[in-house]
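Changelog entry

Holo records now carry the ligand SMILES as an explicit input line rather than a separate metadata file. Below, a converted record for pyridoxal-5'-phosphate, shown in the new format.
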Amino acid sequence: MSVEPPIHLSPPDLRGGEAEALLDALGSGWVAPVGPQLDAFETELAAATGTCGAVGLTSGTAALHLALLTAGVGAGDHVFVSTFTFVASANAVLYVGATPVFVDSDEASWCIDPDLLVDELERRQRTGTLPRAVVVTDLYGQCAEYGRFAPRCRELGVEVVEDAAEALGARSGGRPAGSLGDIAALSFNGNKLITTSGGGAVVGDDEERLSRIRYLATQARQPVAHYEHTEMGFNYRLSNVLAALGSAQLATLADRIADRTATRVWYAERFAGVDGVDFMPEPAASSPNHWLTCITVDGSRAGFSATDLMAALGAAGIESRPLWKPMHLQPQFSGSAVIGGGVADRLFSMGVALPSAPRQDGFHDRIAAVIDGVIAGAG
Ligand SMILES: *Cc1c(COP(=O)(O)O)cnc(C)c1O
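Structure line, unchanged by the conversion:
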């Protein structure tokens, strides 16, 4: 058993400004899901994502829920969803009573396959069975290739919900994550690039829709003195105290991305020349935030498998994880329709997400020793 401290996959990264920001928020008296820190955080998020506005919420999952609800998605509708994602993307579809249809990944990006998506939309247009929306995940900090499907979605009247939970600060074709769909969800969960310990936001350009989301997230309370409600709402607003934490974290976003990118480069050096180990591919126009460094291991070429690598890391107290288990393989969604699926299946069977925190000498020496040992023991 290892006596050294555990190394986590993506631990919360505190950089010094957080405690003061929290104390300021407490001192302001706005210890509630409303206040100046929340307003400021929303303004900063809109700026960071190149959008007109943001609504701070209790989670990224809540953001996806309200994005779909305000897209008019409801019972009887189909919603296409990236199959290679975290379950929240698909659960939000269930919350509004709709049916998810899963779409496979592209080998070239691991994000949703644009050709597969557009071909299926064309086919469904001919048969009058278009989905109401598509939830597209910006995977592991890399934006999907929206330019290859979003224009066609718009022509067909299919709403594009960008699940940018993992991608804050990433870009595609020079445009920031959060600005690539019709509306987007962000997450500030503890393992994400910035955290509010738990939280999320919707960002977008449709001010009227953002106001409606803010209203729905506040129990759909009418703007009168007494408590007046004309429809069902939700208690989804982000705390003002946590927004202060978010602002302090967001201020260092560029450094965080630079550090995670350096970690990825460091792994590339470790695995350089090892046949059968491939990194998540990055299309030419993509500028990921490198939230997690992800690889696939072809055991027959590398001489060790993804499972071998994860076991060796685990034995040394170092956390790594398989890649997302595709939604169409989840027992929860057995019987759901899937378009393609083989690419995501293969990524799940061969993939590893490596511990991706900024480099720390002590930690990274330990990771290097394990990786070097696994490579040396191969073949
Ligand atoms: C983290 C995550 C979410 C959910 O965010 P929470 O804030 O944890 O609710 C949604 N989608 C993806 C792809 C995620 O990684």
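Spot-checked after migration. The chain has a mean pLDDT of 97. The first strand starts at residue 53 and ends at 57.
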